[in-house]
Amino acid sequence: MDTGARRADGSAGDADYGAIGPGYREHRRPDPRIAAAVAEALGGAESVVNVGAGAGSYEPVSARVAAVEPSAAMRAQRPARLPPAVDAVAERLPFGDDAFDAAMTTFSVHQWADPAAGLREMRRVARGPVVVLTCDPDLVRDFWLYEYAPLVCDTEARRHPPVADITAALGGRAAVRRVPIPADCSDGFNEAYYARPERLLDPAARRACSAWSFVPPELADRYADALRRDLESGAWDERHGALRRRPHLEGSLVLVRAVPA
Q: By three-state DSSP, how is residue 258 classified?
């Protein structure tokens, strides 16, 4: 696979963040409980490379961070308190072997042109743990959204690499854990709205989930209209209303942590 092809914005994967990136930070704010899981997995590393860093979500505040992000639109949304991101791709990290205590990537590996190559690069530059926050494609279609937006969930399942492929590329000793998604999750990926379906009626909220960008706009509108009708009629609550009372969801969100053998 060609790892050199990049869009005008610099986006190196299959999603065009020049088009969908503006406004991303407003809807994709890091959730502190998910951040705690990521921080625990990093194990107190003093130096960390964040690959596919985007606007800087989940970067540890107590470590020296080198951020890598190919999209100009996403680099521009990084807060001033964070270090500027290096314009590079996961498959060719501009760092030496064992340059960092740890490496991390969150909600990014499915965007890469060659995930296995990018993961091997993360392993190359990290002396210690490599931490990957991602979605298990085998679980994506279990979410209620599949009833309303099947192509969105099919796209998610197609784009995310199987967890077994991630652990194989990283090598060493790997552990995989599911990460509970809080009902009031501030990071607006699709499953974050499991108890607040009304949020997905907002086009900007949908735009912040890259899988929606692969659906023709008129079809996305039809999906949203079907959800709106069921919310107005009470049909959604008849089938899924119990989710509104659940404090968290065990969905497709997983955390992979691999250390050298």
A: strand
